[in-house]
Amino acid sequence: MKRELEPYQLIERSIIKKYRKTLWNPFVAAVKRYELIERGDKIAVCISGGKDSMLMAKLMQQLQKYSDTPFELVFLVMDPGYNEINRQKIENNAALLHIPITVFETNIFDVANSTDESPCYLCARMRRGHLYNKAQSLGCNKIALGHHLSDVIETTLIGMFYSSQLQGMLPKLHSTNFEGMTLIRPMYCIYEEDILSWKRYNDLEFIQCACRFTENCTMCDNGGGGSKRQEVKQLIKRLKRDNPIIEKSIFNSIHAVSLDTMVGYKSNGISHSFLERFNEKTEAEK
């Protein structure tokens, strides 16, 4: 008699089989292209409870199972002050997906919500700091975050439209405050629509919005109602009607920036002008 698979096994199979081209292959491609994982790494997979981080946890689990490169994983859940419903949902999903989570508590929501000045910015900074600190205390040398390709191109456009700068989101970077720690983004090449498709196919329900400012929001898992990111999401959606590969074009463009054509750019916090090169060439021609 053929053994019936457990729910978590069916979910794992969907990643490797049904969503191999859209989830598994792009995930593996990003790990290899950007050299995200090395032999002996101990990686803290940071789980917020949303669809992105939960899928990332399963992808990392599967990679550890099949990879020739040995590495360790810690599935880290930071509770910044979730309400009881969100906390229980995260724990239930972790059990369903067979993800052995390590949970630690913080008072981030209390601190961030007590200020009227940029609470979201403060919350994000505190979250990152607590995750680095906890991961380092557990002997990890890397933390993995669940940002995907759609996040990458949206961040680039948000910077252009609202901050007057061309600024990307790197697939990995060294921590400036925690020596020896590196941040990696293993889902860098995965589209959000494919994550949503996987979620729906497996009939999974993740927390939508954990922030106390927006706990009643029904769209936060997809960018936040009324936010600048949501505006950019809608813009890209409209542009895709005429150009279905526009996301891929934007993504490829950040891999092929021609600095020689830029009027100005920043490197290591220092601003540079095209006039530097122009004047150097003028002096050399004299």
Our estimate of the beta-strand percent is 5-15%
How would you describe the shape?
globular
Major sheet: arrangement of strands? 3-2-1-4-6-5
Mean pLDDT: 90
> Could you give a short account of the major beta sheet?
6 strands, mixed
Q: Pairing-aware structural class of the strands and helices?
A: alpha/beta
Distance between the first and last residues' Cα: 87 Å
Specify the helix fraction band: 40-55%
Number of helices: 11
What is the H/E string?
HHEHEHEHHEHEEHHHEEH
User: Radius of gyration in whole Å, from Cα?
Assistant: 21 Å
**Which blocks of ≥5 consecutive residues have pLDDT under 50?**
214-225
Overview of the molecule:
This protein has 286 residues and is an alpha/beta fold. The chain has eleven helices and eight strands. The chain has helices spanning 7-16, 20-33, 51-66, 84-96, 108-112, 119-137, 149-162, 192-201, 228-242, 246-253, 274-285; strands spanning 42-47, 72-79, 101-105, 142-144, 172-174, 182-184, 264-267, 270-273. The strands form two sheets. It has a six-stranded mixed β-sheet, sandwiched between helices. A two-stranded antiparallel sheet has the order 7-8. β1, α3 (51-66) and β2 form a beta-alpha-beta unit. α7 crosses α9 (228-242). The longest helix is centred in the middle third of the chain and has 19 residues, at 119-137. The chain starts with 6 loop residues before the first helix and ends with a helix. Residues 214-225 have low confidence and may be disordered.
